[in-house]
Write a structure and sequence with these properties.
about 290 residues; alpha/beta; Rossmann fold; Dna Ligase, domain 1; 3 domains; 4-stranded parallel β-sheet; 4-stranded antiparallel β-sheet; about 40% helix
Length: about 290
Amino acid sequence: MSPVKRLVALSRSPAYSPNQHRTNDAAILEEVVAALAPLGWVGTTVGERDVVAGHIPAADLYLNMCQGIAASNRLLELSLSGPIHNHPASVLNCHRHNLARILRAAELPFPETVFVPTSDPHPNGPIVRMAAEHDLLWVKRSDVHAEVTEDVVRTTLDGLASTIERFAGRGIGSIAIQGHVAGPIVKFYGVAGGSFFHWYVAEAGGQRPVEVDVERLAELANAAAAALGLEIFGGDAAIPRPDLPVLIDINDWPSFAPVRAGAARAIAERVHHLYTRERLTCSSNSKK
């Protein structure tokens, strides 16, 4: 009889799961834990507040949905007893100020992005040039992904100053300004290793564009995830041309709401496979 393997699921703070995402985020974590049970895993769930406080039980494996800086830094400080997916370093890589830098270094298609403090709402030279090229601009908080609708705003150069002032009024000290990429927006979900990839059109109705190079879209999404160090990921891409997807955003461990059951199985199989492979490698090395 195989020994029981201990699993700890680290749930996301409600602050990073607004509206219906709170239920959906909790559901995917629960389903992954359930999918791991037949593989010999027994799970416990710990909240992000407990992670920040350092109250994390010893385990053979950790599933990490925490998104806050405090929780991620705490996980980096701790010597956990087992592997963690997603790793907190990859979660911090998804914070927008890191995301833009990493994707640019990886030479992946991503909108031009300028970071500015909200203390000065007047557009600088690079922003004026960006506005001349793109007409529409997107203003986003520069750290975590949107907590509320107001964290992502579409505007023009004329409306930029007042938009920045509204961000400042909410206590957000730094923002990202991006040029608009034309074309339909698609959402995608993925698991590293190519075991799972799903996409759909973000617009109402969910009808797929007539032409999308799905292979190229999956290639881009997986390349971005690899650059960031993500095992479990989701995001958005604009399709200005069927064979030229442009990554708009990518984040760690989305809810997978439309495809939760299949995603949960793929995630469970992936983390179990990695755990088993690592154990076999360690066992083999110890015998040499």
